[in-house]
């Protein structure tokens, strides 16, 4: 099926030249930006006009001058961008009020959560906005260059280990000094997704003895390829299609018993296990924390969805009888320069699917578009 031409609000804004816009992120602590000077230049080369709110990139160290040199048009406030943008790129979801100020039929792409924002979802429908929450992007080989979850998880895994190293009252590497030999810290990374693998690699670079644990036994090779040791607790959750199956109550109890015993000799735990769209699985119980040595550290990357550790308090660092438990939020934003560069490239690669010759048109036979759009295509068409 040929790509549909722009003109109908359900298919994209009309006009020979598309205005691609971004504003300064308003969410607390958010420093990333959805368009960098690099991607701005590429959008312009593709025939689009880039409109940006002044100061949009300051949190990520991208100046207005850099954007101007890349061909962007700088506008004085966010409302001017909302009114002009045919395609609005964002990091965090805009508020319902912001969506209400967008052009009718505009396209919105970013880390959107309409299912959790009733007012925002209502405005998306009312303004006939074509929204693409990139968390819905199919996890296929073709989609890897657009996978914002993976690119941002890599930064989060890296930063989590640096936080752990700062909080730990121990060196990570082995040191031989005149005062004697210091043994390396023992680090356990729970979860071997993108964030977990980056955490393993970073901890190894810092010189720690590193183990990785995941309920999927096929992750062993990935963990070992990074210099870590696969922690085998004797319970396999191997399922079909590369996904983990649910453990039985008996299997889970045995896994928990063995993990509790193992944690007694661990200095640092980095938790990264997450299930998209669901609360994080509770893996490290309060009893396990109580059995760890004083001075041990837990950094819980899953804090935003409740945490893998039972004692995690999102956004806080607490002392649990001598064990430090940190629940940092939005870690990718703390590496705003490189996180923004990766994120903006992801968005550019996704936008190329429907931005052609200075106009917007959707081929709804493309599964990357059809499975990512919200509301689903049937709703949009109606």
TrEMBL record:
EC number(s) given by UniProt: 7.1.1.1
Domain Alanine dehydrogenase/pyridine nucleotide transhydrogenase N-terminal per the UniProt entry, residue ranges: 21-156
Alanine dehydrogenase/pyridine nucleotide transhydrogenase NAD(H)-binding domain boundaries: 165-327
Region (Disordered): 1-20
Reactions it catalyzes: NAD(+) + NADPH + H(+)(in) = NADH + NADP(+) + H(+)(out)
Keyword annotations: NAD, NADP, Nucleotide-binding, Translocase
InterPro entries listed in its UniProt record: Ala_DH/PNT_CS2, AlaDH/PNT_N, AlaDH/PNT_NAD(H)-bd, NAD(P)-bd_dom_sf
Cross-referenced Gene3D superfamilies: NAD(P)-binding Rossmann-like Domain
Function: The transhydrogenation between NADH and NADP is coupled to respiration and ATP hydrolysis and functions as a proton pump across the membrane.
Family per record: Belongs to the AlaDH/PNT family.
Designated name of the protein: proton-translocating NAD(P)(+) transhydrogenase
High-level lineage: Bacteria, Pseudomonadati, Pseudomonadota, Gammaproteobacteria, Lysobacterales
